[in-house]
Queue: 3 jobs
Job 1
Amino acid sequence: MSTGFYPGCSLTGSSREYSESLLAVARELGLAIPEVPDWNCCGATAAHNIDPELALTLPARILAHAEQAGMKEVLVPCAACYSRLQTTRHHLRADPDLLARISGRLQMEFHCEIDVINILQWLEREVIPLLAAKKLSSLGYQAACYYGCLLVRPPRILGFDRPEDPRIMDRIVAAIGLRPIEWAFKTECCGAGFSISRTDIVARLSGKILEDAQSRGAELVVVACPMCHTNLDMRRGAIERQAGKKYRLPVLYITQAVGLALGISPRKLGLNRHFVPVSLRAPAGEN
């Protein structure tokens, strides 16, 4: 199967350690994920509030370029990008007239036959089966698997079997030697795009997430969303000022956790870019 990689804006900018760790894992396991050619911004959380048809056209252009490149599916690590691409695919496949209109705007032949998968689906399908042949570093920490909002909602479009209590990330972290905890905030909102305009809201919401995870014995938080990572990691100072207490939990992308288990060096996984230091046991060796 030809799987294309759509990095989106965050993975080439503020969250490039997410991309670095994903590509490091893919290289380590010999998995090819070529980048979608001439990709553009998916519209993020802004476009559909301004122009609904533009909000479909931007993701459709990405899918059209991937389709024309012969790709059968697109891997979308960013939860917000995944939501926009999957939502666009859902609407265009349900409405042939809309698909024809969007194709006309793109001035590209586009059949919308391509699939969209998120990072958790790709890891469980492609990476986990290869781990049996690898000697994994023993991590052994208790992990809070934080899915956030956009990876699992809306359920009727994204199709998670347990949208309020998803399990796929829990299975992945268990396969690499972490111990997923049971906790109450795995799909609660971190404040998302209010990170800049209303940092106080982000501090309050993200503080509740960290409080619940830490109180239940978590030693780290695992995420699959650039915005969630930004709010839980970069906004830690604001969170702690509002809460009046410290939270010791580092926040790792799921790809960084997998990379550590594979023995990939912390620097190659971008752990040095975090605001909250990651002081987990470093795997021996420099892959």
Note: The chain is about 45% helix and 10% strand.
Job 2
Amino acid sequence: MRFIALLLLALMAVPVRGQDVPYFVAYSDDMQEPGSLEIGSKMATGKLPLGNRFFGDSVELEYGTTAWWTSELYLDVTGTTNESTVFGGFRLENRFHPLALKHWINPVLYTEFEDINGADKSVLEVVGHDGKGNLATNSSASRKQKEREVELKLILSSDAKSWNFSENLIFEKNLSNTPWEFGYALGVSHPLRSQGTPDRCVACLENVSAGAELYGGLGDRYGVGTRLTSQYLGPVTNWQIPHGPRFSLGTGFGLNDYSLPRIYRVGIAYEPGQVGTLIHRLLAR
């Protein structure tokens, strides 16, 4: 976390372009600009009713490979109060925009390979019958459990009068002999003010977006549905500082006894701009 904070501060002088949607779990059709890099961190924390508080942090490196293809690397770190802090593994993600122009509904195809372990508590999605019991295991013991998985998502996103509506269907398969698991995430958001001001303004309302996320598991191939699945609903918001970082906050409230009572989320992201330009500036110093 210190490394990420220092890196973000070192890049503060470079112009950036921010994205407005404040989602932590749901994806919209936003794609990274070609050749542009975004560095970020998403942290989730919660507490079992009779357990210790945990946190899971995902450090993100997102790169715009082309105008229709964005790649991302996640590095996960997990810790639990009165236990240890461990490396949770890595994820390689690719998103593809099959349509060149904006439409009423904009689809994105998502693929991901995960090489994580049982200690991971980043809660980047909820699938199958994932519940609070999965987050109760001791980190030192569960880190020995390897989980290599593939994940597919169908992302649908629509924009109407500054509102964004995003719907995700999730399909996940452990590469061992386990069934496909399913999940979903829904997001809606809107800037607090649609019209921008001509002058640079840090605290203007158009730099703040607010909305809500609903997400949860949908069972597996042997039983699709919401029975014995965890479900969460809660507000999300972000603040994009012009030519600076983007800060995000969110809370997921558990909707049934299978869920955690609450998951709190904090995010920070910074886009230093074109990688070629950044390397040139660093070499010129």
Note: The chain has a mean pLDDT of 88.
Job 3
Amino acid sequence: MLNGCDGIVTKGGRGFLSRAAGKVYSAWKGHPPRDQAAAAAEWKFISRLRFSDSAGHVLFLENHLRFLPPPSGKMRWIGTIHLPRRCWNEEDLALLRAMPGVLVLCDSMREQFSDVLDSTQIWVVPYGVDTSFFKPGHAGVDSPRQTLLYVGAWLRNTTMLARLVPEISRRFPKVVFDFVVPLHARDDEWLRTLGDNPSIRWHQGLSDESLRDLYQNATALLLPMEDGGANNAVVEALACGLPIITTDVGGIRSYGGGALFPLVANNDDSNCVELVAAYLTDRDFAASVSSGCRKFAETRLEWAIAAKEYIRVYRELGFL
């Protein structure tokens, strides 16, 4: 039950039966080899729509669009786009044009897809975050430690990151970097140049609690980006009241960039290092940004607030 609406989460299990069902379904539909658990989830999703009066919502539209029947008749469904336009090919854009509407996670993505769908068919619903779990720690920006946190791999500007780390270390030798990067992503050529840096502590496979601890004990999130829509690291940092140092690209302005916290131009190393210096040396500035970040998460991104936005879209589509 979500804000008075019944809902069923459809997902593929990782057990043998689920994967086998997905493989049979993929073979029947002539789909290429793929994640069979996802295929099983699609089969269950389609079946529920076909044999009930339900409407559906595909949370990661780009992963499933080409494998699902277009919405029509009893097949009433909508999807959320997570990836920016640069990640889409023409085949998938053609399928997108058959949708009655889509949800996107930031204003810039609405603009990016405005030549594919009419603006009235594109709803901006910000990415939500669990603010009761991701929250400021006891030390916060008052911690005497100087730690910069980097999280993730997708669409990051690792070239810029590889230049920034040595320069920050030169100016602030006591700074420690916590890098949360999955093992498979460490093959990145620029991350490899940082592999033996003694100032970096590498992490992977963390529990939610351990990841939260890193947010709560860092001075700032250092996250140079090439592009993006919404970003898990950004919304989790906001909820934890962690100041964010990132580039003015993608959807970052829909998540407080430029208003709550300063942005730097992509590949502007000099201004980025100066912003790092400001957070490391000016506690009042850091505390002010931290407070604004947390308030933004509580008033704009908290799950109960996001849920109301989803309900509003469903009503406009006639799903409710």
Note: The chain is about 40% helix and 10% strand.
